[in-house]
Amino acid sequence: MGSTPLLILKALPFLFMTLPAAAASLPAQSWFNQQGYVGPSGSRIIACHGYGCARRMAISVDGAWLSRARAALRSGQGSPDVERRTLGEVIRSYTSYLATSFGGKPDEPGSPPQMSGVYGQMDCLDETANTMSLLLVLQEQGLLAHHVVEYPESRGFFLDGRYPHFTAVIAEKRTGTAWAVDPWEKAPGQRPDILPLTQWRQDS
Question: The whole model's pTM is what?
Answer without folding.
Answer: 0.85
